[in-house]
Amino acid sequence: MTLSPPPLSSASDGRGPSRLRRCRGLITALLLAVAAWVLYLPSARYGFVDYDDVRILKDHPELYGQASLSADLRAIFTTCFPREEPLLVRDVTWALDSRIFGFGNAFGYHLGNVLLHGIVVALMFGFLLGTTGRYGFALTTALAYLILAVHTEPVAWIMGRKDILSALFMLLALCVQTRRLMSKSLLGQCGWYSLTLAFFVVGLLSKISVLTFPLLLFLHAILLPYLRGDRPPDAPFLWGRALAREGLLLAPSLAISALTYIWYQRTLEQMGIFDRGYAAHGLAHLWNLLMVDPLALCLYVRQTLLPSHLSVLYTWPALKDVYPASQIAVALAIVATSGAASVWLFRRHKDLFFYCAAFLALMVPYLNLVYVGIWAADRYVYFSSFCLLALVSTLAGAALKQPHPALRLGAVIASALFVVVNGFETLSYQRAWRDAQTLWQYHLALPRPSPTAYENLAAYYYAVASAEPDAARVALTVKKMSVVVEAGLTEFWRDRRGPPPPATSYLFFLKSIIQEVTGEPEEALSSLLTSDRLRPRFDATNLNLARLYRKLAASASDPQQRHTYACAARDRFTAYIRLAFRSRPPPPDILQELGSIESECASAGRPADANEAGPAEKRSNR
Asked: Quick one: which H or E segment has residue 344?
């Protein structure tokens, strides 16, 4: 069974494609874009889901909602540094959406995602057609890309803008590089190369994971003859001048990636992003990567081809203190099998090796090699999923050409199953993104819900209560919040005789808010201190503790207790400033609040002792 494409027909040789063929490609690309717009247009009516989109977008009118676009751009590029996600190109598109549709209007941000996604689908078809010259292959792969259920998250979620933009500019870079590699003019080659480099930089400023994209450009350049059928896929690899030239052309983009990585890492260090409690280093860290990353890649393959129970945050695979023998065996087997398959493909099917190597190159930023964050997320394969689809499309096409009826029938059934499952999951999962309540209620119904689902649904109810002027409705919403928090504690702290697990830290944080709102400050303090023990050095916990201690000090009748609470408030607020702002100067309102707290501590009784917060918290906890 051969998996290689036949050589290009005379219509695609050096004489150039016919006008009809060019029109066919353009019309197909436009129809694919329209189909993508129709599929995801319902999501344009959706709202914010209170998961990063509020914290990173809606809470920052100084970036996206100022009086003029020039003021927004000045804040994005100069004044608002450092910040957690300095993705300049994405931020500019958000500022434009805000200017056209209004800062607090989610419609503009959603519509932008939908329109950009349609362009990405069209460009995907154009890239595959230009690279391989195979219309049927390009159309099949692009159609499969169009209906992928794992694309629902980055398209229907406002925060997916960075994934769509980065894919857009990476595809433009690949299309332009194809023109360079086919150009006979030295001046033309220089121009196309400069444009490729420019698209790479813009993509890098859209999402930091584009750091490894130069590896994909390199693979595309050296394997293009095999992809286009100019050389048989099992022909010996050309270790010659062309390889050395592409290596030299790779150097500038690698240098840009290195400089951007250093800049971005320093920014995140200033924001305290790396201080998340992960303590493994050296061999222990490598062992964790070996045990989790192969399983995560398998999860991506499964969710791309036969998705089920799609989720914002997958609870599997996850870190463990001790990994079972079965997981160790499976992880090692995956690594060994993948390595052997890559070697075989490089020797026998260099066209397919491109897609395997490209997938791994694009996924490197998500393998937690340096900083451990999220192990698996649908948005991570928004662009790289085309590699898996290209492999499957090639295998299915080869099977359909075989004389054995069983192989052809199996290919038809597998293709139909892929279309039905992905189409159903796309339509059903898209509806879950309507707003925060529908999204997190969907996640609570999953077989293995994440603590984050309980936390975010409860936080959403608190946000609704905070904005509700009617007291009766506030009480009802707080009651809903309380029910969700208690359900989360029941789910993740089933043995109440033992200490609560660290996963419940934020649930205790939310419980303290409920208790404070319902007039139980002492109980709120106990819950907040429990949250602090489960997750130390969290800036929001210290802020809430400082303000709760301040409230308790104001209501304390005993001078000694009032002094103890006031000094605890001072120390906790100082800790909050240290954790939240790091080396950055706190804003004036925070400094003013600190001054008031210090004044209250000094006037509460005897001189403040910086060590008194510890005993105070111990007494409060008892």
From this structure: helix 325-348
DSSP string, 262-298: HHHHHHHHHHTTT-SS----HHHHHHHHHHHHHHHHH
The answer to whether position 490 is within a domain reads: yes
- Do residues 4 and 229 lie in contact, with contact meaning Cβ atoms separated by under 8 Å? yes
CB 144 within 8 A of CB 301: no
- CATH assignment at residue 552: 1.25.40.10
User: Residue 253: inside a domain, yes or no?
Assistant: yes
pLDDT for the residue numbered 11: 42
Angle among Cα 329, 389, 296 to the nearest 5 degrees reads 30
Six token digits for residue 582: 């790091």
In eight-state DSSP terms, residue 611 is T
Residue 461 is part of which domain span?
442-621
Q: Are residues 428 and 447 in the same domain?
A: no
Q: Tell whether 347 and 460 lie within a shared domain.
A: no
pLDDT at 15 over 60: no
C-beta of residue 213 within 8 angstroms of C-beta of residue 170: yes
Number of domains in the chain: 2
Residue 84, classed as helix, strand or coil, is coil
Q: What is the reported pLDDT for 605? A: 62
Q: What percent of the chain has pLDDT over 70?
A: 94
- The answer to whether residues 201 and 150 touch, using CB atoms and an 8 Å cutoff, is no
pLDDT tens, residue by residue, 205-264: 999 999 999 999 999 999 999 999 999 999 999 888 889 999 999 999 999 999 999 999
Residues 88, 162 within the same domain: yes
498 and 608 share a domain?
A: yes
Same domain, 420 and 337: yes
Determine the Cα–Cα distance for residues 14 and 538; give it in Å rounded to an integer.
63
Residues 298 and 350 occupy one common structural domain: yes
Query: pLDDT digit string (tens) for 386-409?
Result: 999 999 999 999 999 999 999 999
pLDDT tens-digit readout, 271-327: 777 666 677 889 999 999 999 999 999 999 999 999 999 999 899 999 999 999 999
φ/ψ of 412, rounded to 5, equals: -65, -45
For the four alpha carbons of 494, 495, 497 and 501, in that order, the dihedral sign comes to negative
Tell me: do 174 and 316 sit in the same domain.
yes
Q: What are phi and psi of 175, to 5 degrees?
A: -65, -45
Judge whether residue 525 has pLDDT over 80.
Answer: yes
pTM listed for this prediction:
0.91
Q: Is 406 inside a domain boundary?
A: yes
- Domain check: are 290 and 339 in the same one? yes
- Cα separation, 590 vs 598, in Å, equals 12
Helical H segments across 183-281, by residue range: 186-204, 213-227, 241-271
> Is 292 inside a domain boundary?
yes
Q: Angle at Cα 81 formed by Cα 76 and Cα 85, nearest 5°?
A: 70
Q: Are 167 and 392 in contact (CB under 8 A)?
A: no
